[in-house]
Amino acid sequence: MKTKGLGVAAALTVGLVFAFTNHKALAAGGVGTQDSATTQTAITDIQNATTLAGLDTAMQSFLGQYSMTYSTASVPDTSTFSTTALTAGDFQEAQSFDIELVQEWSKYTPAWVAASQVQTIYAVTNLHVLPLSDASSKRCASYGQGTSNKYVLYDVNCSNNDIYMREVIHHEYAHYLFETENGTVPPSFDAATWTSYNPNGFSYGNGGASCYTVPSPCLIGDHPTSGFVTGYAMSSLAEDEAETYAYVFASYNNQNLNGWIPGDTVLNNKVNLLKTYIASVDATIDSTYISTMHTYAGTNYSSQTASVINIAPPFAGPGTEYLNPDGDGSLIWNIPAGTTGTDGIGIGLFGKINVGPTQTLYLDGSISGTSNAGVEVGQNGTLKGNGTAERYIDVDDGGIIAPGHSPGCLTTNNLLESGTYQAEIGGITPCSGYDQVIVNGGPGNPVTGGLTAVDLTGGTLNTSLSNGFIPSVGQTFTIIDNKSTDPVTATFAGLAEGSTFTSQGVTYSITYKGGTGNDVVLTVTNVNAAVVAAAAGKAPGTPNTGFQLLMARPVLTLGAATTSALMILYVSRRVKYMASH
């Protein structure tokens, strides 16, 4: 059962205006039922629907291709689930979910679905697993294996987080089909081979439900360690297989997966085993098929061409399709100063923003008010700005955090930095002179809780000079102001406590015990003025632990050293390179 990222439902009332005009029409060249006239008509009818009855007609037609039915009634199995039937007030969420379901389910062949014997999709609200009926029992999806009706059910309120819901659609179906096809409870396939791939000494946790306790023992974020697509996948064999399945089928997640597996033998082995299993059930779903469904011109996400998207109350626009586009080129989101998204910038149940590949978020306002009010920066995504993500900032492997607009400060309760921190140094005052992340400690995400305020596991540090600034020996720069009482967990890659590195002619020592005893502080120990002059204003450079940058280019260095002061000032005013524009 899937609830990763779930917030407290009672606090999450958001007035969203959804629009689906940007969904692409399906084009020839897809797989499953993507090309069928029935699927194309269903998407158009869902977009044009104004009532639940209109949505129901479109969905019955679409699922008829799979000999399935669609229901918005409460689930009849009242001994296992507590649900609420959809009403007119749920139309927006239901419309969003129906689009997501059609676009994801159409990736399947009728033969693949028939093998699982699933009969019905339920779209409901207030899904709880009994006997509990409080927030801890809240679910976004589950399934039933009744003798008279086999079904998968989804809570449409979760559809407001588009990327997450698309993953949930596949994750829960994976649980259902692995139990149906293999008769295993908890659901799994080829458990012996799968677990043999795990790292030596690894043991799964206490199941997915354990991740919802406070504090949680589960790691947060995508690909937190070798062999697992998420920390949630580490909780049990069943969740590991279902999460991996979802990352194979959900297009946004699949982009990240393909970036991880070349360097992750364990995960690569698991994905290949899963693909072999799928092909054994339906031989048409091979690697070519899977690749096609992710490159299909008509599937999945809206196309946004604007270079800057301004997000401000009342959050009108195409909902999370606005916030979470995918595969359509570079985008910049702008949350202006003074903007407070008390329900996570209008992304409903989760209060979280996902920054995806080639996307840049300028956070200058604040994200607050929910238990999951944070930002997750995915591979090749970038977070900038001077605002606040109340609960956490989670920078995944390959993601970038670069505070400010050259330079600036970002604020959060918890910083998980597995990507790259691009720290710009253009003066001696934090926020106005150099980049800083302010970490207050306190509540993180209670679902994935147990966070250390500052965790640098897997993170790297890049520094760059700006504004013509030339540091002096002895100057210090607190690049992470850790206001909590927690010590910093781990260090930046290659930069142990007290080590030194050289970037753009400036040699720094680094400590993770600076300031009040747990701040990350850089101290200038040496300055090569000629190299600094030549490098000033250039793009951020990776710390050089053995050689000064540009020394391999003596002509450039000599020329810069003899250039007039006016020319140096001119060059130095170039702004920081923005990697995701």
Task: Give a quick summary of the entry.
It contains 14 helices and 28 strands.
Question: What key attributes describe this structure?
Answer:
disordered N terminus, 581 residues, 28 strands, 14 helices, alpha/beta
Number of helices: 14
Distance between the termini: 38 Å
Radius of gyration: 25 Å
Range of strand content: 15-25%
- Major sheet: arrangement of strands: 10-13-16-19-22-25-28-27-26
Assign an overall shape: elongated
Query: What kind of oligomer do you see?
Result: single chain
Question: What does this protein structure show overall?
Answer:
With 581 residues, the protein is an alpha/beta fold. It has 3 domains: 35-183, no CATH class; 188-297, no CATH class; 381-572, no CATH class. 26% of the residues lie in helices and 21% in strands. It contains 14 helices and 28 strands. The strands form 5 sheets. A 9-stranded mixed sheet has the order 10-13-16-19-22-25-28-27-26. Helix 1 runs antiparallel to helix 2 (52-64), helix 1 runs antiparallel to helix 3 (91-105) and helix 5 (162-182) crosses helix 7. Residues 2-28, 297-334, 338-351, 445-450 and 537-581 have low confidence and may be disordered.
